[in-house]
Amino acid sequence: MKITELSLKNFRNYTEETFSFDDGINILTGANAQGKTNAAEALFFLCTGYSPRAKSDKLAIKSGETEAEISGTAISGYGKITVKLRFFSSDKKRVFVNGVETLKIGELLGNINSVYFNPSELKLVQESPEDRRRFMNISLSQMSRNYFYALQRYNKILAQRNNLLKTPDVFIIKETLPVWDLQLVKYAATIIKARNIFLTELAPLAEEKHAYLTGGKETLKMKTESGYDGEEREIADALKTDLKNCMEKDMRLGFTTVGPHRDDIKFTLNGTDARVFGSQGQQRTVALALKLAETETFKKRSGEYPVLILDDVLSELDKSRQKKLLSATDGIQTIFTAADFPSAVFRGKSYSRFTIENGSIKSVKKF
What we know:
Layout: E1 2-9, E2 16-20, E3 25-29, H1 36-48, E4 67-76, E5 79-88, E6 93-97, E7 100-102, E8 114-117, H2 123-126, H3 129-143, H4 145-165, H5 170-213, E9 220-224, H6 232-245, H7 247-253, E10 265-269, E11 272-273, H8 274-277, H9 280-302, E12 307-311, H10 319-328, E13 334-338, E14 351-357, E15 360-366
């Protein structure tokens, strides 16, 4: 899969600009705060309908404007794909796929697949389980609309269940809770089963990529902490039992204490917890290995690589790991952003270099 063109109108600090990307390596360079990361964000927006940086869509609109637009064209094994997103100051957006407006964001997912990495992705290792669940949700939602819709329904039912648990009338809770639980476990089982399969595929690939990046000096291991295995029916039955057993606890706390919204992934390096004992450099390498493994999982499932977006990654790596990363992206359309361009690392490679200044492309050079 390749993105051939990205057009921006009133997006962040861009007034109007169009990028024409090569199939292989594309590098966006320039001083800080000129628009490199904004373009990377727009690419991810185009693929998923969501920003990796902001919770509100209206923040994407250039200061002083009331509307913004991102549009792009991609080529996949299924042919040409066009996607357009329009943003409004009301915080609403409209989505068009191949010229047809879709009212469901799920219909956008899977048209143009991407894997996104920037320094904030260290949260995958350093911070809360919510960040690791978000990683799984974004990746699996692109791979499967069924997963995306199951996740949407699960979150809605979970919110209703949690509201019920805060009701002061214990009789109403005990009478109504089993009704919600029957629906909850159905979608929970779909989510958990999909995550289990995904992590089974991802773990050995991440371990392999990590060994490559570190020259085999460290051993990465991944383990899911969902606690549920088997087929969907078995998972649903086990979760139903756990929900029943945790009813009194949930009523006391006012929220649901078991289910996929509590899932986590544990990373160990040479047997020690990477989150607790890993240095920032080690944690960065773990997160990067995970993203490279994610691209391979897309390839395994769909037959083609996603677009790989690497925002300000090179500056955080030594020259040896820069070269290894570059080698690991062979055959993948990759968009790098870099304030300080390490030209020696790219010597001998074919690439396009875009120089960005104040939301405009000042030059494009092909090497």
